[in-house]
Amino acid sequence: MGRPxxxxxxxxxxxxxxxxxxxxxxxxxxxxxxxxxxxxxxIFVTGASGAGKSTLLRLLAALERPTRGQIMVRGQNxxxxxxxxxxxxxxxxxxxxxxxRLLLDRTVFDNVALPLVIAGSPRRxxxxxxxxxxxxxxxxxxxxxxxxTLSGGEQQRVxxxxxxxxxxxxxxxxxxxxxxxxxxxxxxxxxxxxxNEAGTTVVIASHALGLIERMGCRVLKLNQGTLASxxxxx
Length: 234
Fold this sequence. Notes:
CATH architecture of the domain at 14-101 and 169-232: 3-Layer(aba) Sandwich
CATH class of the domain at 14-101 and 169-232: Alpha Beta
Structural class: alpha/beta
Helix content: 25-40%
Oligomer: single chain
Strand order of the largest sheet: 6-7-8-3-9-10
Order of helices and strands: EEEHEEHEHHHEHEHEE
Number of strands: 10
Distance between the termini: 26 Å
CATH superfamily of the domain at 14-101 and 169-232: P-loop containing nucleotide triphosphate hydrolases
Largest sheet: 6 strands, mixed
Radius of gyration: 17 Å
């Protein structure tokens, strides 16, 4: 794989202040959660199914708003952003999903280019950035391929290339290795590590504890919507 894209934007710091997310009257997905993530950190969020991992990531991506509390990302309270400003905020984030969410009728190039097309980037700059992102994930020779012709690991790398093509200061990944074998999972995690070393703040929700231990990063464990532990693997 190629060298990660340099992060040209200000790095992202995150602070949650007593955040609660309530979906039902009798249950909080997150309850009075407070934590800080420093600029250029790589963080894993773990916990059993229903612990609140995906909810936390959705809040960080402004896909949902908290019931109570503040979520500060790069100094702005994203829980109180006006609706008209949310698309601009999301353009500062790279989102990676377990199921890739690729457009099957588009080429790899077009899938990766989508965030830049939405942002109205000039064609020359768009082409340059897409090819740099594909080089970063080791798929320079697949830009004209359709997603259905790719392996699962290749599809996930296309999703990562799409997430980083705009060089965001923050990348959020929800179970990015959930459908991959151990060797491919390690390869994907090492790619995230290289992105982090290039200056990107990375937050990954994962239940792959053995893989997380190999990465040696800070680990936040959630339990029923609360922070059960905050530790660093040896």
